[in-house]
């Protein structure tokens, strides 16, 4: 039990972080999931990863409550009447957020926040609204102390959205992550430009391709955690990942990898995910006991299993190491990567996933962006840091090609020169181009910004520095961000500009 | 087909007009401004060969009395343009409008337009015209960045193809202009200013500000007198002189202070410029 004692006596964790870690440690003493020997092998060689999801799932990984319904009906369980003004709305949401579980222990999705707020702004001056929203946003940042938390804006321009963007620039908060759902036919240029301009001060919001994502589910979608595209009133039971470089390392040839190893590992991963889903739905008691389900804020039919993949770049590079061809730079490497993606995609389309009504009984693909312990493994299908394409347009075309098969979240991050602030319309032109060729998600931050995007979540450089100096920090994601920032040399990301 | 010497093509430019643009820099200028920040674009290479031996990557060679440049080997260290005694560059390609457009086309759909700059791009009006015709066919907007010494009224077809001109008004008093630019007269610049304002092609005005060298106050009031109502709508960039890239008598001159720039901004606002900014 040294691990538990280590947690209890840690000098780098807050009380809250210790409680979370202890809960994890307790869960992991169980071994109730049936995991075949072969699957264990894939875990051992780091080809399959459960991403710290715990050994006995007792809540879905990501939950996307139907906040519109909550605002309309209030909550019997929480004894909340439907709000009638802005104060009541914000207070009701603050209460509900506290009761939305997830893998992090905090809500990972806060709603289409501008749309929730907009109807309550009638008759409220900008000044008054900003004061209330400032308190609200700071409450979120200081109490949801994990930046795998997301709120959405758009695609329509709203006064609420504009006020939130103006406040975010001022507040410099790491939580929540914001995404602007962007559709050039709906979102006015000046609103999108305000979003981009804001992101060059505080790394928020990111931009998501609304035209593409709105077709993902039969219901509305939201973006949660770090870039997970999930159905509202549902979410993701699990996200388990295929760590492609781990698998590539044991391949005897490219053909063996493509024809035997990859299909076999996918089968093991699919079964493992079904095992998790079954336990959660059939035994954990979550859906029977949660007031979210009873009050219709979530429904088990709207949950999916996300099959994550990561390290496509290194996988292709390892398989082609004999001839030195590189992902992103050589046709042969990209064609091989495309072949790998097609195999994975075909697997997801035919493998029967349990309790996954909204995805027609199948797993859905996600570009998993990496863990703090990943070394030499690039997020999802991205080109490795330091190996980015010189021309950002070539880079984005490459992204679009590899975003194609991934339906539940896949994106790119670009640091920009400070001069970008003077011409957000130029960056919007790049976004329009990228989305028109099929890129799904894009985010920016300014080269010297304190807030930086690690893989999808935001962390402050100043906080990482404190953590490296053995100080206690408020957000637990700083613990993940600091090693990730160093291991993946994120400070060397290619800065884009003139 | 027309050819023109191309110094470089920048696929992504945030600073050469509205939106994201590809900028094409033509080689050669009819002025020699003391504050020029890219003096290597002023003259054409005379193949003296001085730059060749210092090239660390071996991208330069001399054969048959001509200096040749191999872009595949070049590491863009700028050694050649630093040692060039004649304000030129060996890294210039003679290209047709089609060849230039082939490079531009790769940047669609990420750009909204192109900007031709220099050097002084209007020294090659036919080349620009042909390039713009191709660009317009492909839905791109076309801007000219110019010192205003070419009489635009002489090129109605080019003006028709172009969405506008970003005009440098370097000085108002002719004596000041001559000393600064080595140009003979700024009368054509003033004529262009009036013409572009009248035909709605004044995209942006620029003044590089350096007290003692540039009569910025006179330029601001002179422009206001010339363009009338347009002061309200045209963007005026008051550019702080920076010695970066400058060669010659101003290469160690400091940047004017913020108080001076603010005074100019105040003056411009007082004259009715609503879109004046300091950059």
Written account of the structure:
Helix content of chain A is 44%, strand content 14%. Chain A has 498 residues and is α/β, with parallel strands linked by helices. In chain A, helix 15 (312-319) crosses helix 16 (331-350). Chain B starts with a strand and ends with a strand. In chain B, strand 1 (4-13) and strand 2 form a beta hairpin. In chain B, helix 2 (97-105) runs parallel beside helix 3 (125-137). By secondary structure, chain B is an alpha/beta fold. The longest helix of chain B has 13 residues, at 125-137. Chain B is built from eight helices and eleven strands. Chain B has helices spanning 79-83, 97-105, 125-137, 156-161, 174-181, 187-198, 216-227, 258-270; strands at residues 4-13, 21-26, 60-63, 66-69, 93-95, 113-117, 141-146, 164-168, 202-209, 235-240, 275-278. The A-B interface holds A 391-393, 396, 417, 419-420, 422-423, 425-430, 432-434, 436-437, 496-498 and B 10-15, 18-21, 106-112, 279.
Shape of chain B: globular
Series of H and E elements of chain B = EEEEHEHEHEHEHHEHEHE
What does the radius of gyration of chain B come to? Answer: 19 Å
Give unreliable regions of chain B as ranges.
none
Beta-strand share of residues of chain A: 5-15%
**Number of distinct helices of chain A:** 20
**Can you give the mean pLDDT of chain B?**
95
The residue ranges of chain A in which pLDDT falls below 50 over 5 or more consecutive positions are: none
Main sheet characteristics of chain A: 6 strands, mixed
Give the strand tally of chain B: 11
Q: What is the percent of helical residues of chain A?
A: 40-55%
**Class derived from helix and strand content of chain B:** alpha/beta
